[in-house]
Amino acid sequence: MKNLTQQIEDLESKRIKWLSINLAGFCIWDSLRITTNHLLDISDAPLLTGIMLLGWLIWIIGLVQIIRLSSKVRKTRLALEIMNDELFKINLLKAFRTALVTVIVAQLAIILITTFITHLSGIFVAEISVFISVTTVIGAFLYFNRDR
Amino acid sequence: MAQHELINTIKVERAKRNMTQAELAIKVGVSRKTINTIETGKFTPSTITAIRIARAFELTVEDIFSIVPDK
Question: Which ipTM was obtained for this model?
Fold first, then answer.
């Protein structure tokens, strides 16, 4: 029993750790990618390119670790059930709801900007929307799933 | 309709049996975090989880959970 409880605790803390790393990597990589694609010309800024690549690498490592963790959890039926219990599912739903509201608000802000201030390209708006939705889902899930 | 607060005796029953939250969580099939949030009244469990918790203590749901109307 002690061994199993410890295993579940380890898997849960690893899930939070790798999700946080994944979020950090995605934030660094995608925010710099959007900035350099649409707002800044950094063709001769190797430092920014290096940071962007580092962010991408962190994101990929986090993603691979999460996939590895999922396959490990799936091996034991009890672990799978415990790791995906009702609190987890509710927190996930709350995170998706938060992201949906955030994206709607962002879209409204974009409409206001394009109407009154400046035109924004379609691809820029799409990339910003993806960035906001992904970071908000993961960030909100980590927030709702924190130890209280 | 009046709002009601759900209270429970999980902590007391665990103490009687010298059982940790993690051990109860495994018996019920949920995470330790879920047991902790239910025990502290931050999360209201589903009927299934409430029944499982009661069964883990070999008690009825009413022995573990009760509602008190808000004043």
Answer: 0.83
